């Protein structure tokens, strides 16, 4: 498939797909005419990359763990190195702190809306203000 179709199927802009290629995260084949040709399996791979980036992992870490990704959402390390484990533990701690901060901010905004609305309208998470 061409880059436009991969972009449509993944929701990732073409420019970002080219960046993934520059970073060594995806490797399309090259046709005789020089066009990139993307294998079907790259649809899942691009979605995995996007999810890992959204989770806060830098591309250098993603590049290291990509060979261990079996399928969407699955990470498998047959023989992880101590350095890889330490890096992933640091990233996990960083993500946990980020999640905690987001949860505190969400709760503060919900409390603010509860006070401002005062009308029992549903909150963003489905709870009512009076819950």
TrEMBL record:
Keywords: DNA-binding. Residues 1-68 form the HTH merR-type domain. SMART domains: HTH_MERR (SM00422). Gene3D superfamilies: 1.10.1660.10. The keyword Ubl conjugation does not apply. One of its GO terms (molecular function) is DNA-binding transcription factor activity. InterPro entries: DNA-bd_dom_put_sf, MerR-type_HTH_dom, MerR_fam. The keyword DNA-binding applies. This is MerR family transcriptional regulator. It comes from Streptomyces liliifuscus.
């Amino acid at each position: 498939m061409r880059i436009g179709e991969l972009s449509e199927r993944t929701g990732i802009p073409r420019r970002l797909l080219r960046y993934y290629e520059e970073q060594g995260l995806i490797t399309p084949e090259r046709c005789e005419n020089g066009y990139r040709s993307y294998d079907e399996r790259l649809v899942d791979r691009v979605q995995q990359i996007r999810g890992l980036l959204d989770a806060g992992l830098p591309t250098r870490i993603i590049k290291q763990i990509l060979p261990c990704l079996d399928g969407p959402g699955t990470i498998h390390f047959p023989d992880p190195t101590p350095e890889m484990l330490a890096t992933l533990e640091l990233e996990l701690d960083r993500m946990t702190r980020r999640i905690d901060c987001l949860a505190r901010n969400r709760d503060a905004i919900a409390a603010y809306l509860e006070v401002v609305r005062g009308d029992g309208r549903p909150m963003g998470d489905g709870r009512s203000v009076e819950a």
